[in-house]
Amino acid sequence: MIKVGDTLPSATLQEYSEVEGEGCSIGPNPVDVSKATAGKTIALFALPGAFTPTCSVKHVPGYVQHFDDFKAAGVDEIWCVSVNDAFVMGAWARDQKTGTKVRMLADGSADFAKATGLTLDLTGRGMGLRSNRYSMLVKDGKVASLNVEAPGKFEVSNAETLLAQARG
To answer: What Gene3D superfamilies does the record tag this protein with (predicted)?
Structure first.
């Protein structure tokens, strides 16, 4: 499992952009994790699935609500990563009204989740291999803090915990 001090694995996530801007097409766009984190501070949180109860009611809304606080703490971007396709993540972004506050990034084949060692096997519940619920503060591509939830819990990956770590 990835740990504090490690560099994020090389992976490509997908992002669906609702509105064309800055030369981006609307359809799914590749996001090279190494390039996208270089020289930036990223508040990254991951969760088992879009539109699921805890993720939709607590996890994403907390990060949207604290967007300005993260910016004030020196965070350049907030990323939400889930094992879903880019179209689902785009629809969920609309539903959650993330706008430009939270980048909703798809890890469709769980490549990023596998590479970090932070997978969650929900095959028995009909959901297949997913990402564990966690948050991490990433500085210039390296993990500065990591908060991994115990199965079925939502206690340490919330926006408030990561925000306190970002403030140092």
So the answer is: Glutaredoxin
Does the global pTM surpass 0.85? yes
Which domains, ranges and CATH numbers included, belong to the chain? 12-167 (3.40.30.10)
Catalytic residue at 24? no
Distance CA 52, CA 152 (A): 12
The Cα–Cα gap between 76 and 93 comes to 19
Asked if residues 130 and 110 have their Cβ atoms less than 8 Å apart, the reply is: yes
CB of 116 within 8 A of CB of 2? yes
Determine which one of 46, 50, 55, 136 is catalytic: 55
